[in-house]
Amino acid sequence: MHRALWPQLLRVVTDPDWRRERQRGLTQPAKQLLAQVEKDGKLALQGRAPARGDLEKRALLLSSSEHTPAGRHAVVLRSWEDWATDELKEEAKGLDFEKSLAELRAAHLTL
To answer: Which residues contact residue 8 at a Cβ distance below 8 angstroms, ignoring those fewer than 6 apart?
Structure first.
C-alpha cells in the first residue's frame, strides 16, 4: 500500500464504530490476543497463535515477520496506535471516515 494512503487507512482502522463491528463474533482467544496487543502495543508471538489469522483478516492489527537475535523469523503483532507516528495520527484525525473508506476502496484495498 502506498504511503500516501496511510492516513486514510489509519482513520478507518481506528474508527471506534468500525472496530466494534469488526470485533463482533471474535472467539475468546482472539479477543484475548487483541487485548494483549492493544495493551502492549507490540507482541512477538511464541509458538502458534491460531486466533491471529482472524485478527489479521479483520484488519484489527498489523502482522509482520521479524528476524530474532537467534536468526529465526518471529511473527510480531502491532496495534495500529503503536504503528502510527504522532504526525500520522494527527493527519488521520482530521479525515472523514466515509471519504477515507472510499479512497481505500478506489485503490482496491479491501478492509
So the answer is: 92, 95, 99, 100, 101, 103, 104
